[in-house]
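B., you asked whether I could sanity-check this one before it goes into the benchmark set. Here's the sequence:
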Amino acid sequence: METLIKSGEQAIKLGADLIKAGEIVAFPTETVYGLGGNALDAACVQKIYAAKGRPADNPLIVHIAKIEDIYPLVSEFSERNKRVVEQFMPGPITLLFPKSDIVPDSVTAGLKTVGIRMPKLEIAREFIESSGVPIAAPSANASTRVSPTTAKHVYEDMKGRIPLIIDGGDSEVGIESTVLDLTGEIPTILRPGAITAEMLADVVGSVRTHKGEVISSAPAPGMKYKHYAPTCPMVVAKDMDSLIAEYDIQSQKGLNVLALIRGQAVQAMAGRKYVNLGNNDSEVCRNIYKAMRDGEKVCDYIICIDLGENGLCKSVMNRVMKASGGKVV
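And here's what the prediction gave me:
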């Protein structure tokens, strides 16, 4: 199969035509690129799992173009849920609702909840609207790999597996959406993202955060399996002294090492190879996946500085710890 990369209105039209024909298409969002198909067509949904090599018990997110598209997909919709939707949609958030019968079990991995997201990126919403159906989509990468934030990243993993990649430029946010479970008495964050716990608490009063315990049935993507991992080993350094020590140890073993650091730590590197992720949290978030993907191509070993547990960087560290398998030096 030839995989095309196209942009603009031509790409949106072609993508919508492919969706209507039962095919799957990669498309941009403000978080990462998605691999989408008709969420109401179980056979199409299976194509998504096959293209990614994704386990069938890992649920997909349903993407919509406008708020009213939520109602046919859910069986309950409370006033509290309405407040959350009105405050944060469109945006980098996925909300879990009790699903309606029109949503195939293959989308939700047999669960009774469905994750729904309305992207902020206008190109994404135009594509969904033109397709005429809600779009089920995980990130557009091979399973367990680093999520793609450019059309080139998608092509690296999906060449020959899908007919089209809609190129919308670099993703603005850079990590996957926050996943918020609205089915309980207290809303629970199942996956952190750019919409933080503090932002959500301002709207709903209080939220719980998922503590990372072992999951037997994952209610949200990214909870059960290894995710976001580069092809070379990666570890987290608790501080710059630890990072430099680990860098030198691995270099002495003959490995080609790369450090991922923040702007203020540049001077400490003294000739060692590094990528500056940025000078603020938004830049770090936007650049983390690109740094991993670029790093794995040229290095044998990646060390990422601990970015902290405050605000947006708490969400970034959720991805970094999964990518490193929890290895800290």
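One thing to flag: DSSP finds ten helices and 15 strands in the chain. Otherwise nothing jumped out at me.
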